[in-house]
Amino acid sequence: MTIETKVWDAAEVLNTPADIAAYLDAYLEDGSPEEMLQALKTIARSHGMSALARETGISREALYRAFSDKGNPTLETLLRVMKALGLRLAIAA
């Protein structure tokens, strides 16, 4: 008997702003900058790059570039993406 497996993709389960916030918070707490960028890329994919481009006014190509392995999104890009996802940036002590 062969067991079939499927690669788990977090983008498939990030359906609500609360899900996205919890996922992102975990990376903010323990992740490296590279891991954080990968998490943001996963979140963007979960929402759909085309939809995100429309909602942010940032081209799909620019979003893919910003969230690529060599990407370095600006604060403006991050804030626009977060707003489109129903999130806000907050600082807590």
Task: Write up what this structure looks like.
This protein is an all-alpha fold and 93 residues long. The mean pLDDT is 90. It has one domain (17-84). The chain is built from five helices and no strands. The chain is globular.
Radius of gyration: 14 Å
Q: Which class best fits the helix and strand makeup?
A: mainly alpha
Tell me the helix content: 55-70%
Strand portion: under 5%
Give me the count of strands. Answer: 0
Mean pLDDT: 90
Q: Which stretches are poorly predicted, pLDDT < 50 over at least 5 residues?
A: none
What characterizes the major β-sheet? none
Write the layout of secondary structure elements.
Layout: H1 17-30, H2 33-47, H3 49-56, H4 60-66, H5 75-84
Characteristics of this structure?
single chain, 93 residues, mainly alpha, globular
